[in-house]
Amino acid sequence: MELVCAVYLVCARTATADRAHAYRSHIASYVTNLTKVHPNFALSPNHHAAFHIYDFLLLFGPAHSWWCFPFECLIGILQRLPVNHKSGESFSSVS
């Protein structure tokens, strides 16, 4: 539930210092409980990066104004395009 609360706070259309502090509290609790419930689970760099979102909320405001999700979706679409993995040769072979 801590992760759900953290994501809810990050995805809100407004950001305040109180919400940023609440986010940090929820994400810290989530990571702490994750290691308690799953002692063999290895935390990833994404878990570390999640703590920096607190700073970004304070610096840049609501996450929806600076997140890269639309661009990540575009990158995913581009990665699924069939290519021959030869940079610069795909257009020369068409003509």
Order of helices and strands: HHHH
* Terminal-residue CA separation: 56 Å
Overall pLDDT: 85
What is the overall number of helices? 4
Describe the structure.
The protein has 95 residues and is an all-alpha fold. It contains four helices and no strands. It has helices at 2-10, 17-37, 45-60, 69-79. The relative contact order is 0.12.
Q: What is the structure about, briefly put?
A:
This protein has 95 residues and is mostly helical. It is built from four helices and no strands.
Write the layout of secondary structure elements.
Elements: H1 2-10, H2 17-37, H3 45-60, H4 69-79
Helix pairs in contact: 1-2, 2-3
List its traits.
95 residues, mainly alpha, 60% helix, flat
